[in-house]
Structures are given as C-alpha cells and as structure tokens.
Design brief:
With about 400 residues, this protein is α+β, with helices and mostly antiparallel strands. About 30% of the residues lie in helices and about 25% in strands. A 10-stranded mixed beta sheet has the order 8-7-6-9-10-11-12-18-20-19. Strands 13-17-16-15-14 form a 5-stranded antiparallel beta sheet. A hairpin with a 2-residue loop joins strand 11 (about 220-225) and strand 12. It is globular and about 60 Å long. It starts with a helix and ends with a strand.
C-alpha cells in the first residue's frame, strides 16, 4: 500500500506541475512530502440520494482510514478537487491547483513567520511548514473548535506537531506570534481585518481572497503597508467558503440564490453580446484569470444602486434579474435591463479591457472619507469595516 500511495502522490504532483500550478522546486517538494490523505478521517461526496445537503447538492459522508486507504477514495483525494469535510458549518480541504497557486504567490522562504486564517484540515498549513522549514513558524487559526481539535491531532500524527493551531475568530489574528511576514486567508473574506494589518511585519504582505460580488467570487488580493497606507492589487482568482465570525456578513446573494436563479424558467432569452460573449468563451477555454478580470470590471463598475452584480447574475431592485447562461442571456424582468448590460459592455471596451494588474487598490477604515481627485476613475466599495478604493489609472 505504501508504494500505491507513493505512486498516486507522484502522479498528482506531476499533474499540478503540468497544469502550471506548481512552478518552483520548493513548492513541488512540499507537495511531494505532505500526505493529504493522512489529514482526513472522512469526506463528503456528491450523491443524489445523500442524506446531507450542501450548496444545492445532495452529499453523503464516507469514512476514511488513512492506514488502510480505499483506493477509490485515494484517487479522489489526490485529484484536483476540493474535498468537503464538514457540512454545517462547512469546512473543506481546498482545490490543490488553488493551494499550489497561492503558495507560489506567497513567495515563502526558510525562516518566514506566517499566520493562516482558516486551518481546515491542516493540509495547506503543513505545506507551508515544509517550505519555511525548522527556522520558520506557522500559526493557523480556525473558529470551529472541533476542526481545531482534529487538525491538531492529525498534524501531530503526520509529523507537524510544531505548528500552532489556535481556536478563535480569525478576524482578531494572533498577536502573541506577531509580527508576521505573511498573512494568508484560506476562506472567502467579505472584508479585511485591521488587526491583520497591525500584526503584519513592515516588509510583509497579506494574501486575501476578498469577496467581490456574490458569495464564492473571491479574487486574490495582495495587500501591503506603504507608510500609513494599506495598498493592494489583484493577483489571481479563487472561490472559497465564506469566513465565519466578526467578518461574516449576511450574503445578499448566496450560493443557493445563484443555483436557484440559473435553473428558473426565464421570461425571455437573448443571444450573448460583447463582454458577456467573452465571459462564456473564457469559461469554455478555461481561461479563469481572464474570466475573473471580466467579472471584476462588472462588479466594480456595475454595482451602482439600485443595481448589484453577483456574476453571472445582474440584479436590479426595480427592473428584475438577468442571468448569463452558457448559450444565452436569460431575462427575469424588464427588457430595459439589456440596455444597462449593453452600456456596461461598452464601458468595458472603452476602458481597454482592464486585467488584474491594471487596478490599484487602497483600504481605509470606514470612518475615513476617501480622497478622490476630480476626474479620477475611481470607485468606492463600502465594506463592513473598511472602504476599498478601486482605481483604474
């Protein structure tokens, strides 16, 4: 069985490297050494007859014995898929492609001090420990007590007992081990925490999946200090379960809302055009960063009251809803919504189709009014504790 596991992990790492998720030797070495299956005791799988429900789907619980692993479950665990490990409240081990991509973006080195928000199964935590080595330190914090207990126990059994796993609200960070060279969240965040900013080392940075639009639309944002300012830029795409605790919000448009609206019979349908045709082509070609760039533009520029983008859905408080489907735009309201969508598409073209690197971000406390010079192309996103200023130079 040891040889079977070794072969499965080798193919798994080769796949991630071939997909371009793993780029450096240190990340490849970490993935080769950390055994994902040893950090699991059960998992939830899609099953039409499953007794549990998550995000509009039925799932069933399967126990897993890491000492005598089921070969079929082993293939699932070492595939490029997130693995659901708890349903209510939810928890999971993230998609390996995303995990590897975020590790590369973190630019970790030996000796780094890292804070992770959202411990999950501890898989990402162990990978980071492999990279920072014995002279580095990883602190992980999770709000679910049972998750923390299990993660501590399984990490220790897997040889990572030196990792500090804390039970608490991730929004507060963990001051005792600060300052941190890196702070990374592995949950979708509707806002940033200024506790993280205070616990960040002077030359460090944060990597946060920051929600823009509907639940699960979480572009990766790199945030750093520059004097008294907190600046940022988009560096990638992601989709995570939402954070719990102080940073959590009542979602205007949840996973379940999107599932329900996409399956509802529309009043009328129309062919794709402009920006929406490009969205569909990006999905077909699996060009996820380009797809997210389009979504970002719609969320930032199109979110003016009474409108709200929760891609691929456009809500208007008075006119109704338009849903971008694979082969059409489904309308659940007034046809004047199409004019709004065409205007947004024209703005996309007029702005020269901005990508991740074209946007500049700044974060201010809610009690500070943003300073935006006359004529500057800037939008303000009001969050729970911060104001995000998004500029397009």
């Amino acid at each position: 069985m040891a040889q079977v596991v070794s072969d499965v992990i080798r193919r798994y790492v080769k796949q991630l490297r071939g997909m371009g998720a793993i780029k450096t030797k240190q990340v490849e070495r970490a993935f080769s050494r950390v055994e994902r299956h040893k950090l699991l005791e059960w998992l939830y799988l899609e099953d039409d007859k499953g007794e549990f429900e998550y995000a509009g789907q039925r799932v069933t619980k399967r126990d897993f014995d890491a000492q005598n692993p089921d070969p079929d479950l082993l293939k699932i665990i070492y595939s490029d898929h997130a693995v659901l490990t708890r349903v209510n409240p939810p928890s999971s081990t993230s998609q390996p492609f995303l995990v590897a991509n975020m590790l590369e973006l973190l630019e970790l080195q030996k000796g780094r001090n890292v804070l992770e928000i959202g411990a999950g199964t501890g898989y990402n935590t162990a990978l980071m420990q492999e990279i920072v080595g014995r002279t580095g330190h990883i602190t992980a914090i999770d709000i679910q007590d049972d998750v923390v207990e299990q993660t501590r126990r399984l990490l220790k059994a897997s040889g990572y007992g030196g990792i500090k796993v804390i039970a608490g609200d991730g929004a507060e960070g963990f001051l005792e081990n600060a300052p941190y060279d890196r702070i990374v969240a592995t949950v979708g965040c509707p806002d940033i925490s200024f506790c993280w900013a205070e616990q960040l080392a002077k030359d460090g940075f944060m990597l946060i999946p920051l929600q823009h639009g509907a639940e699960g639309t979480d572009p990766l944002v790199r945030i750093w200090k520059e004097g008294e300012r907190f600046l940022g830029r988009f560096v990638g795409s992601s989709g995570f379960m939402s954070i719990q605790g102080e940073l959590a919000i009542e979602q205007r448009h949840s996973f379940d809302d999107v599932v329900r609206l996409r399956s509802r019979e529309p009043r009328a349908v129309f062919p794709h055009f402009g920006i929406f045709k490009e969205m569909v082509e990006c999905v077909k070609g699996k060009q996820w960063d380009q797809f997210t760039s389009v979504l970002l533009f719609m969320v930032i520029v199109g979110n003016k009251k009474p409108c709200n983008w929760a891609p691929p859905i456009f809500w208007h408080e008075e006119k109704g809803v338009a849903v971008v489907r694979e082969d059409e735009i489904a309308l659940h309201g007034d046809e004047s919504l199409l004019d709004d969508l065409k205007s947004l598409s024209d703005q996309w073209e007029g702005s020269r189709r901005p990508g991740f690197s074209d946007w500049q971000l700044e974060f201010l406390p809610r009690d500070r009014a943003p300073e935006i010079p006359q004529g500057e192309r800037a939008w303000v996103i009001e969050r729970k504790f911060s104001r995000e200023i998004v500029r397009l130079p």
